[in-house]
Write a structure and sequence with these properties.
The chain is about 25% helix and about 25% strand. By secondary structure, the chain is α/β, with parallel strands linked by helices. It folds into three domains: about 120 residues, no CATH class; about 180 residues, von Willebrand factor, type A domain (Rossmann fold), CATH 3.40.50; about 230 residues, 3-Layer(aba) Sandwich (Rossmann fold). Strand 8 and strand 9 form a beta hairpin. The longest helix is centred in the N-terminal third of the chain and has 36 residues.
């Protein structure tokens, strides 16, 4: 804030002026005290001298007053110089003695869309041009009188120079050091930083804000409420003006691979694997691209695929023959002549399962394993002698607490009556780390125990209310299943398949669940209500809920072919349904090997280590990893000690050695948003900021950078005046100082 003075200028640091004014009193006090320091001595021989002094008294007094005034002026002007008064630009005083002053905050976009190759002379990419403009802005400022702060607008935004500096050469060097980010753009976050910097510099009222970016839709149309709130706040803080440089080229376009995923969540070595590549196009493309998908460097048939790349294009599916168990790298790339090549390639690391280990926990045990509550599920998942991809192990509920849960991909609770609190906590942690738990009902199950343990630990989507049992004169319940209408993703193989047994299976008993209306659990299948209760809500028969990195399946009836529960087991659909639920919900365990730019590699606790892990990029540059305790409450590893790398800033395939095994880490640029390089106009930018007043410029280097109402720093002129007065004071002290010896004694005859 500045303070008005009579000469139409304000003060940046007014306290120095008041301090200088206070120091003026010191020479005056010394002068008064010196006048009182004399001794009266009567000496007749000196009387003639007194008469001579009386003749020169007026001249001596005048000289003393001039010297006193000069010393007072030195202290006053010193305080005024340190307070840095600002004169208005039209003031003749400012023009003679002032220097420009102010705070200039420059926000430079460096999200990966700024790597667009625009073909400018001397500037290959948008970011190159942004740096040229930023350095031109800084170069035209007044050294020593104007300060600069610089912010980059990638995600997350960074304060390149957070505390404003007056060293303009250092500011230009800082601009040169801004690197091209391969992450997304966070314009709102960068503007919030600009607001905070201006708020901290409250003593300077001459603040200017410069925004330099490519005006993409993702930058200015996302986080609309936040941007509209920031606009007026920035306009109020940056009173010297806001300027936007739009580097986007009219008609610029891009083609990108925005997604690459396996069609199934789990890939088995026993089956072919489908991979889905999502190719999009934005803007008026010159040509259609060609897609190539490779596994471990080997091109998958049919080789190059002609794709139609639009903003709403359908994904392309490519099939790989049976893959061997273990880690594989899938690469999808485009043959395209677009000008943003970084998103023309995408990677995916998959962990192909050669054998899926499933633990079946039985609440009821039969003689020789027959008649147990998990026997029929075991036979459905792993028929004897078939050598299938599922390896099952059956135990009693009493043995569950002694098992190492992470050794299994899925744990099935079949009619388990009592779940201990400690076991429920272990199961919750197991699911959060990526495991799957299937909960089947049975005779031993009690609502009180399940609600107090499983529901408490988020292993049920809702509390159990009561067991529904069909009486003798009632018709059995049935699944609400129709193969000719849209089915849940986990039932897709039953689409248009008749006589599977799903529609004819009879259910005599099941547990009713109070599923909250706002539950995020997925209803896979429901029970039809009784014929005499047409308006009754359908009870869930099968639900799937996500918990951390894993999933929980609730199956409301029994997995055992007990005639008191259901007749579904002998139908052909039963084994198929169990496999669909298993394959559709079991985590492949490779999600931690696929991350986005700007994220860190976190090695799960289940990965065995024989020493410190070593992470390297494709050029064999090593990235350090440190043991940390995860403090993020949303992380599946919350509270655990794991090895974590620093955030990886470059896309590509990295290698990780744990001492016992080697893994691959795929790092990709953000998905669809940043790939959309289509731009918005000046009107949309202003609207995004709440229609604030700001100057809109293009991509040309500015030739004149100075706000019309910017003031002049008069502090330098006053400091020069201080030095001049000091020189005058020294001369006068030498000229008049000898009279001080005569003032010390007054002689009286």
């Amino acid at each position: 804030m500045t303070y008005a003075l009579p000469l139409a200028f304000g003060l940046i640091s007014p306290l120095f002026l008041w301090a200088g004014a206070g120091l003026v009193s010191i020479p005056i006090l010394i002068h008064i005290l010196n006048r009182r320091r004399f001794k009266v001595v009567s000496w007749a021989a000196m009387e003639f001298l007194l008469r001579a002094m009386k003749k020169n008294r007026r001249r001596l007094r005048f000289e003393q007053l001039i010297l006193l005034a000069t010393r007072c002026a030195v202290l006053l002007f010193l305080g005024l110089a340190l307070s840095r008064p600002l004169g208005c630009s039209e003031s003749s005083l400012a023009d003679l003695a002032g220097r420009k002053t102010g705070l200039h905050v420059i926000v430079i976009g460096n999200g990966y869309s700024m790597a667009y190759e625009a073909g400018r002379a001397g500037a290959r990419t948008h970011l190159d041009q942004a740096k040229i403009i930023a350095k031109a802005l800084i170069h035209r400022l007044s050294s020593g009188g104007e300060s600069v702060a610089i912010i980059s607008a990638s995600s997350p935004p960074r304060e390149i120079i957070g505390s404003p500096i007056y060293d303009l050469k250092s500011a230009e060097d800082a601009v040169d050091r801004i690197e091209q980010s391969w992450g997304a753009t966070d314009e709102a976050g960068a503007l919030a930083m600009a607001r905070d910097i201006a708020s901290r510099e409250a003593g300077n009222s001459n603040k200017s804000l410069y925004l330099i970016d490519d005006s993409t839709r993702v930058a200015w149309e996302s986080r609309g409420d936040v941007m509209r709130q920031l606009g007026p706040e920035l306009a109020d803080l940056y009173k010297s003006g806001m300027t936007h440089f739009n580097l986007g080229k009219p008609g610029q376009w891009n083609q990108a691979i925005v997604g690459l995923l396996p069609a199934e969540s789990l890939i088995s070595s026993r089956f072919a694997a489908d991979f889905v590549a999502d190719v999009r196009g934005y803007g008026p493309a010159a040509t259609e691209p060609k897609l190539v998908v490779k596994v471990d460097g080997v091109v998958l048939a049919p080789g190059e695929i002609n794709v139609s790349a639009t903003a709403a294009a359908s994904p392309q599916t490519v099939t790989a023959n049976q893959l061997a168990g273990g880690i594989h790298v899938v690469t999808a790339s485009l043959r395209s002549d677009n000008r943003l090549p970084v998103d023309d390639v995408r990677y995916r690391v998959v962990d192909v399962v050669s054998q899926l280990k499933v633990l079946i926990v039985e609440g009821e045990r039969g003689v020789g394993g027959q008649g147990s509550s998990g026997a029929f599920l075991d036979a459905a998942l792993n028929p004897k002698g078939t050598g299938g991809y599922v390896a099952t192990e059956r135990i009693s509920d009493l043995e569950l607490g002694n098992k190492v849960l992470v050794d299994y991909r899925c744990i099935c609770l079949c009619g388990v009556g009592e779940i201990q609190e400690t076991v429920a906590a272990q199961l919750e942690q197991y699911v959060r780390l990526g495991g799957t738990v299937m909960v089947f009902m049975g005779d031993p199950v009690t609502a009180e125990n399940y609600n107090a343990t499983l529901y408490k630990h988020h292993l049920l989507p809702g509390p159990l209310t009561k067991r529904i049992t069909v009486s003798g004169d009632e018709a059995p319940r049935r699944f609400d299943f129709n193969p000719h209408r849209p089915l849940n993703r986990l039932l897709a193989d039953f689409q248009n398949q008749e006589d599977t047994g799903m529609e004819s299976a009879e259910i005599y008993s099941y547990w009713q669940m109070d599923l909250p209306a706002n539950s995020e659990a997925e209803r896979v299948l429901n029970f039809l209500p009784p014929d005499n209760a047409a308006n009754q809500p359908e009870d869930p028969a099968i639900t799937v809920q996500t918990l951390g990195a894993g999933q929980v399946v609730f199956y409301a009836t029994s997995a055992d072919p007990n005639a008191e529960w259901t007749t579904f087991m002998p139908h052909p659909a039963y084994p198929a349904l169990m496999h669909m639920l298993l394959l559709g919900t079991t985590n492949s365990g490779d999600s931690w090997m696929n991350i986005g730019v700007g994220n860190a590699v976190v090695i799960p606790p289940s990965i065995q280590l024989s020493g410190n892990p070593v992470l390297r990029d494709g050029a064999q540059v090593e990235y350090p990893m440190e043991m940390q305790t995860v403090s993020d409450g949303k992380s599946e590893f919350f509270g655990q000690s794991v090895y974590v790398s620093k955030p990886l800033e470059n896309p590509g395939v990295y290698s990780l050695s744990t001492g016992t095994e080697d893994y691959k880490i795929a790092v990709n640029v953000p998905a669809a948003e940043e790939a959309d390089v289509r731009t918005v106009g000046d009107a949309e930018v202003k609207k995004a900021l709440g229609d604030v007043d700001m100057q809109m410029l293009g991509d040309s280097v500015p030739t004149q950078v100075a706000a019309a109402d910017e003031g002049k720093d008069l502090g330098w002129g006053f400091m020069v005046l201080v030095f001049i007065l000091l020189g005058v004071e020294c001369v006068m002290a030498m000229r008049f100082g000898h009279h001080n010896r005569m003032r010390s004694t007054v002689v009286r005859a």
